[in-house]
Write a structure and sequence with these properties.
alpha/beta, Chor_mutase/pphenate_deHydtase (chains A, B, C, D), homotetramer, six-stranded mixed sheet, D-Maltodextrin-Binding Protein, domain 2, 3 domains, Preph_deHydtase (chains A, B, C, D), Alpha-Beta Plaits, 306 residues
Amino acid sequence: MPKLAYLGPEGTFTEEALRVLAPDAERLPSSNVTAALEAVRRGDADGAVVPLENSLEGAITTTLDELAWGEPLIVTAELLLPVDFSLLARPGTEVGHIKRVFTHPAAITQCRNFIARELPDAVVVAAPSTAAAAQEVSLPGSPYDAAIAARIAGEHYGLVELATGIGDRADTVTRFVRVSPPGPLPAPTGADRTSLVVFLTDDHPGALLEMLTEFSVRGVNLTRIESRPTGDGIGRYFFHFDLEGHVADARVGEAISGLHRICADVRFLGSYPRADGLAPQAKRGTTDVDFAEAAGWLTRIRTGRV
Amino acid sequence: MPKLAYLGPEGTFTEEALRVLAPDAERLPSSNVTAALEAVRRGDADGAVVPLENSLEGAITTTLDELAWGEPLIVTAELLLPVDFSLLARPGTEVGHIKRVFTHPAAITQCRNFIARELPDAVVVAAPSTAAAAQEVSLPGSPYDAAIAARIAGEHYGLVELATGIGDRADTVTRFVRVSPPGPLPAPTGADRTSLVVFLTDDHPGALLEMLTEFSVRGVNLTRIESRPTGDGIGRYFFHFDLEGHVADARVGEAISGLHRICADVRFLGSYPRADGLAPQAKRGTTDVDFAEAAGWLTRIRTGRV
Amino acid sequence: MPKLAYLGPEGTFTEEALRVLAPDAERLPSSNVTAALEAVRRGDADGAVVPLENSLEGAITTTLDELAWGEPLIVTAELLLPVDFSLLARPGTEVGHIKRVFTHPAAITQCRNFIARELPDAVVVAAPSTAAAAQEVSLPGSPYDAAIAARIAGEHYGLVELATGIGDRADTVTRFVRVSPPGPLPAPTGADRTSLVVFLTDDHPGALLEMLTEFSVRGVNLTRIESRPTGDGIGRYFFHFDLEGHVADARVGEAISGLHRICADVRFLGSYPRADGLAPQAKRGTTDVDFAEAAGWLTRIRTGRV
Amino acid sequence: MPKLAYLGPEGTFTEEALRVLAPDAERLPSSNVTAALEAVRRGDADGAVVPLENSLEGAITTTLDELAWGEPLIVTAELLLPVDFSLLARPGTEVGHIKRVFTHPAAITQCRNFIARELPDAVVVAAPSTAAAAQEVSLPGSPYDAAIAARIAGEHYGLVELATGIGDRADTVTRFVRVSPPGPLPAPTGADRTSLVVFLTDDHPGALLEMLTEFSVRGVNLTRIESRPTGDGIGRYFFHFDLEGHVADARVGEAISGLHRICADVRFLGSYPRADGLAPQAKRGTTDVDFAEAAGWLTRIRTGRV
């Protein structure tokens, strides 16, 4: 039974994701993404489940940065989880009496309309996670009257649900990934995704265009690009890429080898089945069969058998 | 005397930025970026100063999203401000007794080493801003023992500085922008920056490459690219671009007209002097003189004077 | 009644083309392409009809070079003319007795199979034009027994047709152009072609890619590209381009202005209706309406009306 | 002693080239380029020397087409030969009495100024080669009074040199290639050239740009591009490319494999030392060492050793 660290405490959306990705795993709640990934790096956990991006909030930058720096880890699975928020309070609390609300900043943004309409006078304070907010609210003497969090968090911490489905959009989704120590990759399924971190050799104009051309010329489609600061001053960035296909695919392998050649550093973050199961349309001449045929042809012409 | 909203309360780095950008302005502290920009949109303020990105933390996504949606506003100035953090507490507090620290999540990340070394057992709680953390700590009965914030915040709220320069990196910089209602742009200086928000027509593979080509073919260099979710599901993004030059420059005008033609929407966020004063190297054939000469030539050949 | 020079003598395919392009014109036969175009430059003719390329033989390089150098001229019309060859001889000649055949080298190539099959032992000598060959054969005492030329040439010079349709391919076509002195261009028809000559600034790697990108980024399709030596040594070339659209089209105008800016020289050779009447499919965002809309948008944002 | 066919008869510039390229070879004059290459294909010769392009006249299209169609052959060497023309006649002829001149059309073009100045009234007739012209003039009863050809041709055929160095440009150069049956390639020298013929899958707009991108993305520079008609109608072309480097170079191999994948057909015409000895500047990340390192990296990451 694998032991998986996750962004805790119990009751987070991440715990929900973990239960779907690895129902039988032992769960090791961590206080933040950094701690969850460090547990894997130290060998205290066999893997971790962490959020990577949210359809409303965007990238979870802590996850991006933790994967880019420090000891390498690889992504071995992903999950798209609809997220919805509930207003949770200690039993006996009435909505009209709520003065202070505790929740994660992402939830503040995503429940903006509900808060403006139902809690116009409440002070809303930022918490490190929605589950931590629920936990804090559950404590006797908490300065907060209510938390905005997943329903599961209310169940964990004995809170009652005063309102449910309070997010501004009903279709908000968070993408979670399972992160593992380096080791054998999930086998290609025909509908895979590959994640990379890329550091430029120098910030010359056109470097990004060059990188994208390495992909496009081999018919590899990007599904996500994020820039992150290197820490070396405004204007210095590195990039996270998600792309269609598996590193075992010839076109993906050649494309990221090309990146590796022209960039200061490329960190491979894994190839894994896409949660949405979408198989890419291979552009003409970019299937594994095409690459194998071309390799055979090249071998022949190099020996003058034209 | 213009009235400028800013990310308050008093004592934030943003206030510091505002004092540099507009020393004589009346200052209107707002509880968050959204509120500051809404004050401009409603006409309650003549402008606002908000953070846009940090060399360690990356983009301030709230600012990016606020500028992308809602009534249009334009950026009219930028400032790069070194940011440094101090550990602030009520008079009489000793470092050894600090159990609960309140600060903005960005500060938690940026002071990670100091916290691990000097406050290994303290609980660190996320605050909406560093100045809000200082304000909270200054209140009698606050559950927090210390705040991590700008020194200026300590002065505002009567806290003492227990440690200074506690950021992991001494060279951290935040980029602030002055935002104004639509209106005349700052005149070109020869060292300008232009900001844009771009929404794709559809997420076809290669759309990003096409956008970058619109810039590169006219010799316009990008200095920043950020992707943000449109809110319509994982895998749907829009883009923030910063580029070298002023929209009054011929090459910039033609490039962003090109973007406008091929994209679903391009929101112009302003052209303004670069804080670093760096003038771009115009690629061969891309100066205003080159464009004017080519326009004259085109007029001639269209009438058969070859 | 305009006077048009053409590649003579009477009986050439070019004369045939001229009769189609300008049935009422006075015809001025010239001994070669150079002479025909010089007649226009000197004002001895109002225009000229010359061959530009053949579907089997390729470019008529003399025409390409004559249009690239010297006083500028413009193309004002084009014609695609099926070409077919006949074996022509003086009355009384029998095929079996033909020992020496005179014709243009292009005809030698295009009738290769017929010659090998029917005239295996004949010596085939290169003539300056097919019609000149017919003329020579018609002279008493000519060393040649037969000519390969257009049927019309046989009629002109009193030769009989010993065989007809002797080209290897039945579908061979020659493209002829009408060349005029600089002056008003033919109006856009929606199915036009534009011809250019482009000289690179320097032969840096990637210069050709840069040129093609100027076209592709504005959605302008090339229909022909020819490289020609500049005369300054092996490895130094200039280019002939044919492209879809009229210089009056916004996308074409911007594309060739872009070329003009980055190249040492661009010579405009005219915009004229396509002989095949094919209208281009405008790529998204590249119609005149799109350009006009973008220009209006640019004007607005430049004055801060966003 | 190898037997090499060449564009004869004796006295052509091609013979001169052959003598430089293979001083000890047995020489087999052929009546034209086609015949010379057919001799190799049939095994009647061990190779052939033919002209490929001239710095003034451009491509020798017969050579291009012969190499593109029929049984494959490969180029194994190249030579740049300065070409100069002489006016040759039977002993006793005076310049003032020359009425009919016989020479190859390329020579007519290249000696245009001399002809206009010194032989303004002469009729100039096209010959299949300059040497054939000299041979014809040497025959008793020839209708021609003089030939324009290489001095060597005059020596062969007993003509006297009435004028020498009569080309308009003193620096005209012809590039000749040695063509061999398929077999082992010349070893890489560090300053090599590779020649290709490329047929597009279809004539979609942007196909040429795609091809050039396959080269540029691997840092492979083109030194020549020629379009030739496929014979299937105006507007249908295939391409000849010369590029820097040897097919044994990793970047060249990957680039032309890429072409092979996306094109209908790529015919490899050989890799051979450049006559000018120029070694290419490898772009960052494109040396064989870079490719080998990247291949090792790819192998590692594919097995999860990141």
